[in-house]
Every structure is written in C-alpha cells, then in structure tokens.
Amino acid sequence: MAIDVHVHTRGTESGSKILKAMDKVGLERLVLLSVPPHESGSARDSKRPHKAVLDRVARLVKADPERLIGFAWIEPTLPDAVEAVRYAFEEKGLRGVKMIPNHWYPADERAQACYAEINKYKKPMLFHTGILWGDSDTSQYCRPAYYEIMLHYPNIRFAMAHMSWPWTDECFAVCGKFRAAADYQVSKWRVYADITSGAPRIWKVDAMRKGLAYLGDTQFVYGSDCFDAEDPEALSRNLIMDREILEECGCSAETMERIFTKNAEKWLGIR
Ligand SMILES: [Zn+2]
Asked: Which CATH number fits domain 2-268: 3.20.20.140, 3.40.50.720, 3.90.930.1, 3.30.2020.30?
C-alpha cells in the first residue's frame, strides 16, 4: 500500500470512483489538491475567489476522510488568501495547503501572511518547486533555495514537489540545511522532497541515488501528479515507474516503505 501526496482534482470527480481506483492500484491514501482558485471560472468575479473550490474539494473528501486528504490550493496574491486559509482549516476540515509561486517569490509578503496563519495551525504545505511548465517565464520563482524563508515558520512541515528538478542538488542542500538548523520545534524532519515526476528517468535515477546517499530515506515522499484520480491506470503509472527506479537504486524494503508510506504519514501528521 502507498500514499500519493500529489493528486490534482478538477472539482467534478466522484469520491466513490476515486476510492475504487485506489483499491485497484493499492493506494492507501491520496492527497487531493483543490482546483487553483485563479483558474476557476466561477470564482473569477467573486469577492471570495477561494471559497467555491475549497467547498468542492471538501465535499469530495467526505467520501472517506481517512483515505482522502483534502489540501487547499491557496493563491496568496488573491484578496481572500489569508481568510481562505482559516476557512479551509476551521470550516472545511482541509488538512494542508498547496501553493505554486507563479510571478511571486516564496518570500513575498502576501505569501508570508499566509504562512503565518498556516504556522498557527501547524499544518503541512506542498510547494511546487523546480521548472514550471507553461508558456510564461515562471521557473525563476520556483528555485529551492527560496524556501529558506520557511525557517521563519517552524511549525510548518513542507514538501518541495518534483524534488525541484532540474535543481535537485539545490533541493537536497536545502533539506540538509533544515536538518542542520537549530530550531526544530515540531519535528526534526520538517522538510521533505516530494519525488513526483518531472525529472526524466535518467536524471531521476541519478538524483535519487545522490539524495538517498546524502539525506538517507526519511525525507522523501511519493507523489504522482495525477490529473485523473478516477482512473486506475493514471494513478498507477508513476507508482509503477517510481518503484522500479527505487529498486534500480538498490533501496531496501524498509526504505521503500518509508518513501511510499511512513514519511508521508509523518509529514501529514497522521502518526
Ligand atoms: Zn502537480
């Protein structure tokens, strides 16, 4: 069984179909990310652009709140961002926050206003890091070293998605820096590299070998970046590939269990 910490939603899925697909593939839990509020047509003119998308993901995870873990996609440049963090945790029972720095840097004041709020709730965060696809000049905002700002928010356990490819060395160095920093107030391992694909296989094998040699196996979590959680084939594709890659890297059964399950439980605060 595995936990997939990086699954996108469209807002139209059925919870029971997702659960069926998970059973077929052998997935114990999924982190389901709400639709980006700034890309949601219904929210565009609203004074609370986050509300509709958070409502939708909260409804979806009701099908099984143990196995379906709802994350709020917060866009800090929108006027209701801080209010949306509170709404997500207090009224909707969502369990973490996802952000993509897109034309703002991770130390942006508007983002920091959100981190301050998330820090109070001691919730996990998932950040997009690494190259950001699309037709705009976005990757410059997503370099892993910018996440050192999170040293100021010691209650937030955060994961850097795609292990920041192509800046995997920089990602692992940041993970190492957080380990070495003195103020571990909640958990020694409060920074994680999400191994969600992005890196072409030849780089991924190389990066995993280096990352595991440098950091050990306690800071990696598995994600698929799946965009169709109702489809077992879509959910299993990267799971199969990443198992193969980690086997190629010589990982033991214990290491596999940490990367596919136990580390995610710690990051999510399940145990
Ligand atoms: Zn993604």
From this structure: 3.20.20.140
